[in-house]
Amino acid sequence: MKKQQMILVGSGIGILLLVYFFGKTVPPKKDTPASQAAGKAFDIQSAIQAATAQLPASQQTYVNGLSQSVVRGDVNEQKIKTYRQLAAFWSDSAQAFMPFAYYTAEAAKLENSEKSLTFAAQLLLDNLRGVEQPEIKSWLASQSKELFEKALVLNPDNDSLKVGLGSTYIFGAPADNPQEVMKGIQQILEVSRKDSTNIYAQKMLGVGGIVSGQYDKAVERLEKVAAKDPHDLEVLLMLGEGYERLGQKARAVEWYQHAAEHISNPALKGELEKRIRELK
User: Fold this and answer.
1) Deepest of 58, 115, 181, 279, by most Cβ within 10 A of its Cβ?
2) What confidence tier does 28 reach under pLDDT thresholds 50, 70, 90?
3) Is 247's pLDDT higher than 50?
4) Residue 227's domain spans which residues?
5) What's the rounded Cα separation, in Å, for the pair 10 and 210?
6) Is position 219 within any domain?
7) Span 93-128, pLDDT tens digits
8) What DSSP line would sit under the chain, residue for residue?
9) Rounded Cα gap, residues 166 and 181, in angstroms
10) Is residue 37 part of a domain?
11) How many domains does the chain contain in total?
12) Nearest-angstrom CA–CA distance, 148 and 124
């Protein structure tokens, strides 16, 4: 499979989708040397240290104090509380996503409840989809997989967790490893075969088809999802993307126009309308 088939953002509308959906869920990031450096493995502790070094002195003192209390603490509940305090700080005050994601995940692992594990797993999965750096994408995917797997131990019959786990393979796969995408698709197919009415599974299979270049199957599935939920903007944009990749410009325009009706952001709507004019 060609590398470009694995990249959703080829036409420009994929970029619009990523900005719209994932720019709004990820807290604004402060660039750090760790996040700028290229490397094969992402070191979350180095990233947190680099982000901490950019904080004002008073905030550095606060963060370091909490971090040291985690090391000293020997009571599970105290560690969970501290991790949540750190997660809240990095989300609300520092607005740095990677430390926020790490501490949210660590708190969920310690609490080990289906609710907390699912929340953290979905948080990382949702934001994984907007990441371009391979090393960060790999870290987010591996963490999300671990969290979904732990939640499935607690509730092995939860189909949504199975779809989420499969999705981590789809969105976390390196561009040169389409087998990982197919692995995720196969996991989600197990849910779909058992329950063909599972809209979440159908949606993720449709998205997976776009990512893997199986556009015919993708648009077929996504149209079924759109029939059930005609206001799902992500699905509408994906349908436009899929038909555009198939060379069916008229159908692509039709779905992009449906999508434009659901976009209130003037800049994003303008970009989509520009693409519609180019296709006509």
Assistant:
1) 181
2) very low
3) yes
4) 3-26+43-279
5) 11
6) yes
7) 999 999 999 999 999 999 999 999 999 999 999 998
8) --GGGG-TTTTSHHHHHHHHHHTTTSPPPPP-HHHHS--SS--HHHHHHHHHHTS-HHHHHHHHHHHHHHHH---HHHHHHHHHHHHHIIIIIS--HHHHHHHHHHHHHHH--HHHHHHHHHHHHHHHTT---HHHHHHHHHHHHHHHHHHHHH-TT-HHHHHHHHHHHHHHS-TT-HHHHHHHHHHHHHHHHH-TT-HHHHHHHHHHHHHHT-HHHHHHHHHHHHHH-TT-HHHHHHHHHHHHHTT-HHHHHHHHHHHHTT---HHHHHHHHHHHHHH-
9) 9
10) no
11) 1
12) 10
Reported as a single tens digit per residue, the pLDDT across 56-99 is 999 999 999 998 887 776 688 899 999 999 999 999 999 999 99
Q: For residue 77, what are its two tokens?
A: 């509940």
Structure tokens at 177: 């490893």
Kindly state whether residue 34 falls inside one of the protein's structural domains.
no
Q: What is d(CA 143, CA 131) in angstroms, rounded to the nearest whole number?
A: 14
Q: Which amino acid is at 76?
A: N
Q: Provide the token pair at 214.
A: 């199986």
Residue 32 lies in a domain: no
